Amino acid sequence: MTAFYLSKPYDPPQAPQNLPLDRPWALLGGISPQQFMKTYWHKKPLLVRGAIPAFELAKQMGEPLGNAISPEVLFKISGDEVVESRLIKAKPWSFANGPFKKQSIPSLETPDWTLLLQGMEARHPAAAKVLSWFRFIPDARLDDLMISIAGPGGGVGPHFDSYDVFLIQMSGRRRWRISEQKDLTLNPNLPLKILQHFNAEQEWDLDPGDMLYLPPHVAHDGVALDAGCQTWSVGFRAQSYKEILQEGLWRLAESLEDIPELHKHFADPKQTATSAAEQLPEEMIRQVTQKLKGLKLDRVETFLPGIAAYLSEPKPQACFDGSESKLSHDEFVRQLRKRALVPQPQTRLLALGGVIYCNGENMTDGQSSAIKTAWRSLAAKRHFKGALGQAEPNNSLFEAYEAGWLIF
Ligand code: SIN
Ligand code: CO
Question: How many angstroms separate the most distant Cα atoms in the chain?
Answer without folding.
Answer: 104
